[in-house]
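Session log. Operator J.P. requested a structure for one protein chain; no other inputs attached. Running the standard single-chain path with token output.
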Amino acid sequence: MTASEPRSVLTFAPVALCHLLSVLCSGLVLLPAFFYANESSLLLSDIGFGVVSTSFAVILTLLAPRFSIALFVLTLPIFGNKPGTWQCIALLQLGAALYFGLLFRVLIEKSSKSALRRPHSVLFLLACFAIASFLSLSSLPVFAILEEILSFAADPRPGTLAASVVLGLRSPENSVAYSVTTAFLVASSVALAQLIGVFFRRDQMPFYAAILAGLLCTLAVGLCDYYGLVSLAPLRSLDPVVNPGGFQFRMQSFFGHSGWFAEFVTLAIPFSLLLLSLRSLRYWQRVTGVIGVLLLGEFCLLLSYQRGGWLSYPFTLLIVWFSIYVFSAFEKGRFMEGGDTPRFSMQKALRASLRKVALSLPLTIIATLAVISVILGESILNTRDGSYTNQYVERFKSMTRASDRLEFVEAGYRLGSLHPFLGGGSESFAFQYEREIVRPTGAFHRDDAHPLHGSAHNLYVQVFAGTGICGLFLLLGALLHFGLNAFRPALYDETISQEQRLLLLSGVCFLFAVLVYGMVQEVFYVHSLRLLVFSVLGVMPFLIPSAFSLGRLQVIAVLCFIFLMSVFHLLWEAPSFVASLRPEFGCYGLERDAESRPYQWCRPKARRLVPLSGEKRDRIRLDIEVPRIDEGKSFDLLRVEIGGELVTEAVVRAGDRWQKELSVPESVLALRRNAEVPVEFFFGSSFVPANDAGKGRPGKDYRLLSFKVYLQNS
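Structure written below.
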């Protein structure tokens, strides 16, 4: 601990809060491991397995924390799937067991406990980002959050609570539960990253070696799966969007999508630089190993057809080639300056390497393309239609056509503008996109909105829409603070060892991959990638603690910024909070038929507010028409609820006009006299005009419809 590091309790407070939230989150996540439940009953036979497996993981961590962490990091790719899948849930349980084991071990070690109380600046900023994620939940529908919380307390039996936890972890991305869950996961990731950093603060090589080993295993097994030598189908299914028909056109390896696989390769490949520090091998052997890993990674990236990897990989190659030539000069004793204690001049070595790097970089790319050409049995210049090479050419051309991403960038900006200070809720882009763009009552409704696959496909848009200016500022602050304070000593600090310099350069390269890939993917959508990023950010600053510190005034400034953003957020959200108490949804804008009668098209589930007269026997008259659609489409069951109470069910056929006068339940009248009452409609079927209007009447109307509600009789 240096004198320049702040010892203020303010620095530790956000990290301590993350640990408290992580204890709660990890405890809930582990509950299903002890009480495995399904939808109908508690399976007692699985309790023993959960107790034994989880207890073993905790005990192993207690006895061998560094080995357990390395094993956990090495196996991260195996669990590289989206939220809600068994891979992600298994990773959460393993991470929770690891967290408790490390926490117990830290609490009984005096030196580790001391390091725990003094987080470095990157962890402080990440912890502040986690706090902003929790504060952002205030933008979500308050009563929906309360319903989620009350659902956990509805039945106190452990088995039922375990089932509720599993259902929460499996919540889709457009749900409130998903947003609440991700806020907990961000906090637990920060807490786990600090514990990992504490145990690797003195010797970091095994940690990064585990990342590199996981990468090599992922590439090797992925290639075997791609060429049919093994099958990873029992582990994960092929993504139907990029690999339709059960044929693996784009390489996925362990991951649930080729894009997540390419992200991992791009993030992990910089740590191939560690091979240069293996002094037991000749330098040319080390260089051969590094180049071999680079070519293998680049080959697999090309097989993944992911543009983000292709964009960021050249920078990785640039850093690696510079490192190869610079450290070769260092081992040969060149560019040494000084008198009695000569020091290696990094600047001179870099300048002398420029021409060599300028030649080596394109040669590496050409060599990879040549290997692919040989394997595919085609010439690189062959671009005939249907050839593999032509598909690569078209994919490269598509990097200049970003309309499929700009749609979501624009949407993210608009969604963020609705909640500019703290956002609309942690990782809530999908929820807000559906509510504000897809739904007819949304602030930016579009009938031609692009279909959304889980996230915004952009890290910055996702964070801005979810946590606003506050979250985006804190996250970028943590990343850029890490990058600048790793880059400067890597180039200019002549007192650090060459191994430390290699690690810092790999960290800079790692950060660049995060920032570049963040432009085309939401990096933290897959929890294993979030853990990888947070762990590296938590471990590497321990190399030079003096560089990763904030003064007391800087810490206070960051906390004051969060406070001000929270105040502005509360003032901004007050009107929308009042408006959210009287929601309407599911019906499109007002239209008129041939007789100029006003009506609204509604979806299978819709709610409208109907004013009450205040009379003792208030009645509501409904006038609903169900269209006759080609292709045999018909509608059957209609349910109507008034004030949350079911008042009628009816079978309504295609082409019918259903008119009925319904009495408002007395219990609803007692609570809502001289007010409005919500009337909810539930249809069992739906149709899309552009798809179901018949071959002779092609259309462009992709709205999801079910029925017409005529307003003059309502």
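Operator note: The first helix runs from residue 9 to 34.
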